[in-house]
UniProtKB/TrEMBL annotation, chains A, B:
Cofactor(s), names only, from the UniProt record: Mo-molybdopterin
Taxonomic lineage from the root: Eukaryota, Metazoa, Spiralia, Lophotrochozoa, Mollusca
Protein name per its UniProtKB record: Sulfite oxidase
Pfam families: Mo-co_dimer, Oxidored_molyb
Keyword Repeat: no
Organism: Tegillarca granosa (Malaysian cockle)
Length: 410, 410
């Protein structure tokens, strides 16, 4: 099992790396009490930031296929606001039903000791994963993510179902429309990051939704929600609230900006001058996705190579497992089947990703370069769209066209 | 409510239509006792057959958008074998668990009187809907379906959950892998049509799976499974066994040809010489689908028209509702939003289709013809693929590329 680095260990690692002159340790400025980002955790220098405040970063794409469970310090980071400092001894999770005065609270110790520990391996993917490909069609608003704005981990904690039951709440019989989650990360006005999921999804998933306090067998790192986050497998990362301290059963969706005015999908002729965010639902389950992690785009194969080994990931939302990954080296004229590595989850309740691999003969008429295409198919036989043009949208979300990598063949 | 025509009424209707010289009444041959198709039901002459023995037919595409619930005699027909003649007084449904000797039987009267009547509006779609578009890329095996090999009806009966519970079977605790369904339609060797669904899907859907004895408030017509069929909302028609008389809880999938060696999806470089049907799972839930029902392909708009009203359907498997239908009149350069008619089902448990409509200005540079494109998006933000080439497969199933209609503008 991978060991999570404590802050001090990360610092030592940084020092070691500095000696090797591979990475520069970022200079730690004098702490400014007015700077909400003064107390951010130290991070692995291997992460590639797409923004520093709030901190957002993806690991190198190639490392994703090295581990079925992404190591904690290499797991992609998506923060919307400064990372809060939470005292685990003072932590409590409050659960409320709209219209009822009384809320029920659980301490961290309660969550660990009063409920059976449940574990689920599941992908967290940013809605904007692969946005950088969409940007090439036309500018969009959002972080310029590559294809590594997702990772896969094993999450452990109490199940939402168990905790709600202990709080006297039965989602099956409760006539409410949404389950809201609030975090402890706050914007400058003091409003927390929040999200909600429709009751229908909560009912379907409830035994699989984890109020998580462990990530890959260790405490959840600060960047990923220490001490507690919600894991709602099969749906977009933005709803899986980190630093979770409040659950509200309500007839209303979360009023949070990111639920109401962001992370929704529009067609390509809707832009900022004519968008009406109320016309489509907030993204929950996400569509079938895949990408090639090896070889890297723009890389050069070995001299005289007559075959290429291709590796990557595939994943779909909604618990839909991956049934096929197809590869082409000739622009889609002919296709090859990748070997899928088992993720040991049922096909219709598959929350972890599927890593895959194939070794393919290079076309003889390659003229020094080859484009490798991958596309995946999920258990509903959903496919990825051919081109990014048809799915372009103003926020650059849901970018899941056929993935293409160009390599040189010397 | 639409009245189902009794055989005699259909015959009268045929006579009337004949007088109008619109349709020819097919000659009824002398009955041959050895002909398994000698006792087929009479059918609406409006249906457009794609094969006569077994009988398969779709309604005219344009009528689909006339009714949220497709009238029973216009509902598309997909038969794999001769239609059995079932005496409702002798009918019984047998329920067995693999490895247990005793089975439990229910008569038609039991199903009607011993269980609460549940109703679900749901689409039944043939896996081969829109196969005729795939054929244009390269020949496939299968009926040459247009885009009307699906229809939407309200199905009523006992829920599978209720019936299994009465039979002493609890799917949640039963450690078995599949639920098999057998029909009373038989091949020349005496083997029935059969299918199965994975236990994971049965558990998720069980309250919504209907052992149906009514279709749109009437007895189910013979072509659609009289007296009883299984309705498994959100999945492909092939598993929704008609003339159902046996349910088996088993560790095995149905051994039936159509489960094992048919209705699976492969990539375009797998053809009959190299196919291995065991490598991918049987189609269950189906991907997002949409089509334009009006105007018809090849039709001519009114002289001087400067706009066009477009109508169609959209539907996705797995209970995924439709969040958007996008239309383009300029090859995908610009897109318009269609107005979605509410289907009154929750977005994440939406088994009926969504009918839609839009009136769009014709491009000024139309040069006498316009291509109308539609593509839909489901609640998992799955999209339709741009082109049929990338999804071509040897059986011509899962044909759901952007739908295109050419119209003349005089």
């Amino acid at each position: 099992m991978y060991a999570v680095h404590k802050n001090s260990e990360v610092f030592e690692m940084l020092e070691e790396l500095r000696i090797g002159n591979i990475f520069e340790v970022p200079k730690v400025p004098e702490k400014d009490k007015n700077d909400p980002y003064a107390n951010e955790p130290l991070r692995s220098p291997a992460l590639i930031p797409s923004s520093s405040t709030p901190f957002n970063a993806e690991p190198p794409l190639s490392i994703l296929v090295d581990n079925f469970l992404t190591p904690n310090d290499l797991f992609f980071v998506r923060n919307h606001l400064p990372v809060p400092i939470v005292d685990p001894k003072k932590y409590h999770l409050d659960i409320t039903v709209q219209g009822k005065r009384k809320s029920v609270s659980f301490t961290l110790d309660d969550l660990k000791k009063k409920f059976p520990k449940k574990t689920v391996a599941s992908v967290v993917q940013c809605a904007g994963n692969r946005r950088s490909e969409m940007v090439k069609v036309k500018a969009v608003k959002g972080l310029n993510w590559g294809a590594a704005a997702l990772s896969n981990a094993e999450w452990s904690g109490a199940s939402l179902d168990d905790v709600l039951k202990k709080a006297g709440i039965d989602l099956e019989s409760l006539d409410m429309e949404h389950v809201q989650f609030d975090g402890m990360d706050m914007d400058p006005t003091g409003a927390p990051y929040g999200a909600s999921i429709p009751m229908e999804l909560a009912r379907r998933l409830k035994k699989d939704i984890i109020i998580a306090y462990e990530m890959n067998g260790e405490e959840i790192p600060r960047d990923h929600g220490y001490p507690v986050r919600i894991i709602i497998p099969g749906i977009v990362g933005a709803r899986q609230v980190k630093w979770l301290n409040k659950i509200t059963i309500s007839n209303e969706e979360s009023s949070c900006h990111w639920q109401q005015k962001d992370y929704k999908g529009f067609h390509a002729s809707i832009d900022w001058h004519n968008v009406d965010f109320s016309t489509v639902p907030a993204i929950m389950e996400t569509p079938i996705q895949s990408a090639i992690c090896e070889p890297a785009n723009g890389s050069e194969l070995e001299e005289g190579a007559d075959e290429v080994t291709v590796k990557g990931y595939a994943w779909s939302g909604g618990g839909r497992g991956v049934v096929r990954v197809d590869l082409s080296l000739d622009g889609g004229k002919t296709w090859h089947s990748a070997e899928l590595k088992p993720n040991n989850q049922p096909l219709y309740k598959s929350y972890a990703w599927t890593l895959w691999e194939a070794t393919l003969p290079l076309p003889k008429d390659h003229k020094g370069k080859v484009e490798i295409i991958c596309k995946a198919v999920d258990s509903s036989y959903n496919v990825q769209p051919d081109n990014v043009d048809g799915i372009w949208n103003l926020r650059g979300v849901l970018s899941n066209a056929w993935y293409r990598v160009q390599v040189k063949v010397p």
